[in-house]
């Protein structure tokens, strides 16, 4: 359990359970890897990916009950359950499931969704949203954002209200 501030500049592998009640900061040289089958990373505090690489592997679980800030690369191949706030300002690549009742906010950067995002609110204020996946929940796209279904061509399915003042690209 982390109850203070943990700085990662190298490689931090979680093969079992890691509980963060404080601040876990993954810097640009760091790799935070929630490895394989049944590994749990439980965030109750602040999980900050500050230019590093954060990976949630297949059959792994990342639970966010606090604040998860991505300013690096976040790759989700397992299940990421967001109950509070997840912000993205660089690259989030999802081929698994991002679920929960929380809020997903992107101010800049790119979300590539080839899986499922199921949130109480999805706000793409800047940057781009791409992929061939499914989004369940209300989606609000700001004027500084763009939506481009697929990764060349394809379909991005949105099940919920869709309000956009941004740019929509269709092939």
List keywords for this structure.
single chain; 171 residues; mainly beta; 16-stranded parallel beta sheet; eight-stranded parallel beta sheet; 0% helix; globular
Summarize the structure.
With 171 residues, the chain is an all-beta fold. The protein is built from no helices and 24 strands. It starts with a strand and ends with a strand.
Q: Can you put this structure into words, describing what you see?
A:
- It is a single chain.
- The chain is mainly β and 171 residues long.
- Helix content is 0%, strand content 61%.
- It has strands spanning 5-8, 11-14, 17-20, 23-27, 31-34, 40-43, 46-50, 53-56, 61-64, 67-70, 73-76, 79-82, 85-88, 91-94, 97-99, 103-106, 110-113, 116-118, 121-131, 134-136, 139-149, 157-159, 162-164, 167-168.
- The strands form two sheets. The chain has a 16-stranded parallel sheet that branches. Strands 3-6-9-12-15-18-20-22 form an eight-stranded parallel sheet, with no helix packed on it.
- The chain is globular and about 45 Å long.
- The mean pLDDT is 94.
Q: Number of helix segments?
A: 0
DSSP strand tally:
24
Query: Stretches where pLDDT falls below 50 for ≥5 residues?
Result: none
Helix content: under 10%
Q: Strand portion, in percent? A: over 45%
Largest sheet: number of strands, sense, barrel closure: 16 strands, parallel
Shape estimate:
globular
Structural class based on helices, strands and sheet pairing: mainly beta
Q: What's the helix-strand series?
A: EEEEEEEEEEEEEEEEEEEEEEEE
Terminal-residue CA separation: 48 Å
What oligomeric assembly is this protein in?
single chain
- What is the arithmetic mean of pLDDT? 94
What's the gyration radius in Å? 15 Å
